[in-house]
Amino acid sequence: MKIVHLIDYYQPKIGYQEYFLAREHAKLGHQTFVVTSDRYFPFPDYDNIYKSVLGIRFVGSGERRKNGILVVRLKSLEIPGTNLIFLTGLKKTLLKINPELIICHGVYSITSYLVYFYKKSIKYKLIYDTHAATFNTDFNRSLLRKLYHNFYKKIFAPQILNQADTIFAIGDAERDFICRDLNLHKIDIPIIRLGVDSKNFKFSSKSRVKVRSKLEIPKSALVFIY
């Protein structure tokens, strides 16, 4: 099966759902693509926190294959004062790939509307997931955000909901948010929870001592990692 993971920002070095899910699809033998923008997410204080891991934000457009995944980065335009970004050449890219399934990571983006719109002519199955919750999404934070949200609910949302084959949430808070915001029933929004890569996340007594020593955390202290 040809599967496209569509997401506005993609940071494989950090991992997260879109990276691991695409990797597992490739391992299962599917032709797997990630279609995304030419830059990394505008994390707060990017230069001090993320630059040492990811490098510069603007990585450029083009294609690169790694771990069986073809990553297609498109030129893009960010809208100041919002989390919105427009991917140029998206329809042309999807026509070239001709996917059987698209998993669109995020429901509230411009991309989420465009992929609904293109479904009419390219004919693929379309799955959305939603990560928006009260602790990470505030549409009232600025006037532009508020205007977009009102426009989205009136114009984009009804069409997306009509064309989506499935919309799922990654947790209870995310399901509560979209159901309340778009007046949906919880039974219609299944939850597929985030997991971890058990090859990377496993207990190591040696690493435990090393990390606690480096961070000057007492052996008896209880530590939560978020």
Notes on the protein architecture:
With 226 residues, this protein is an alpha/beta fold. The chain is built from eight helices and nine strands. The chain has helices at residues 17-27, 46-49, 51-54, 90-97, 110-122, 143-163, 172-182, 205-214, and strands at residues 2-6, 31-37, 62-66, 69-74, 76-78, 85-87, 101-105, 125-130, 166-169. The strands form two sheets. The protein has a seven-stranded mixed sheet, with helices on both faces. Helix 4 (90-97) packs across helix 5 and helix 5 runs parallel beside helix 6 (143-163). The two termini are 35 Å apart.
List keywords for this structure.
226 residues, alpha/beta, 7-stranded mixed sheet, two-stranded antiparallel sheet, 8 helices
Question: Strands, helices and their partners?
Answer:
Blueprint: E1 2-6, H1 17-27, E2 31-37, H2 46-49, H3 51-54, E3 62-66, E4 69-74, E5 76-78, E6 85-87, H4 90-97, E7 101-105, H5 110-122, E8 125-130, H6 143-163, E9 166-169, H7 172-182, H8 205-214
Parallel strand pairs: 1-2, 1-7, 2-4, 7-8, 8-9
Antiparallel strand pairs: 3-4, 5-6
